[in-house]
Write a structure and sequence with these properties.
alpha/beta, 8-stranded mixed beta sheet, 44% helix
């Protein structure tokens, strides 16, 4: 009787050993905030990569917040991916455009250390949530920031629920305090910080997930898609009946939302 009970327990333990996940932290710059965590399972080699930037109103948040990495890293590393969670400097030490420069430096570090990280530098997906989605989208559309950091093209960008694609529109319409603190009062800065102003035929493709429970992200996604389409850039919009926080926290759980994002990533990495 004891042997019958122990067999499924042993199989469970062996399965979890097979997917034992490790995390290693690397510095990609000299500032204490310029660090990233690399999650992978033992034996991962020449792996595709998902690079994630957390949200937090451009002022707070951290790469080790559980909603940022836990479900996502577990889901994708068990499929053979490497998952990378990035910190950048934050307001007031670095405003959004400089945060995009930090993210560019992180991307360059990942690409240039592919052998050490055991990844395929040609199979990278960039992802961000909320403020991190804005910064990821800005880097994806600012070819000058990519060139300055010597970042090579990556496969695609996943934007998780942000309304900050056209800052000129947002800032001209009584924006929340978090936007005023991040983007200030200069229309010139709003212009350079707006992904919609920089999208070109060299960018994309993009997957934009937007909360249908909020009023601004899905209209913002459609505006960006229209501008991108005019430049021949493919944008897929995925409305989700989830809250802003749920779009981040539930990605990687067993649900239709995760499956849809995963399908887009697999198609993009072909």
């Amino acid at each position: 009787m004891k042997q019958v009970i122990l067999v499924p327990i042993l199989l469970f333990l062996l399965a979890n050993i097979a997917f034992a996940q490790e995390r290693r932290e690397f510095a990609y710059g000299s500032d204490p905030s310029q660090k990233l965590d690399v999650y992978r399972v033992e034996g991962a080699s020449n792996a595709p990569v998902i690079v994630m930037l957390h949200g937090g109103a451009w002022r707070t948040g951290d790469k080790r917040n559980r909603d940022v990495w836990r479900n996502k890293a577990s889901y994708w590393t068990q499929q053979g991916y490497v998952f990378v969670s990035v910190n950048t400097r934050l307001v007031p030490d670095a405003y959004p455009v400089d945060q995009a420069r930090d993210l560019a430096a992180a991307m360059a570090f990942i690409q240039q250390n592919a052998t050490q990280l055991r990844i395929d530098p040609n199979q990278i997906i960039l992802m961000g949530h909320s403020a991190g989605a804005h910064v990821a989208g800005l880097l994806a559309t600012r070819d000058d920031l990519q060139a300055a950091a010597n970042v090579q093209p990556w496969k695609g960008t996943v934007i998780l629920d942000t309304a900050a694609v056209d800052l000129e529109a947002v800032m001209g319409n009584e924006p929340p305090r978090l936007y005023r603190r991040a983007f200030g009062t200069s229309p010139a800065y709003w212009t350079v910080a707006s992904p919609i102003n920089h999208v070109s035929r060299r960018d994309g493709p993009f997957l934009i997930v937007c909360s249908s429970e909020r009023t601004t992200p899905c209209p913002a996604a459609r505006s960006f898609a229209q501008a991108a389409s005019a430049n021949g850039v493919a944008v897929t919009i995925l409305p989700a009946a989830l809250s802003h926080s749920q779009i981040n926290a539930t990605l990687g759980q067993a649900n239709n939302y995760t499956s849809a994002v995963d399908d887009w990533i697999k198609l993009t990495l072909r």
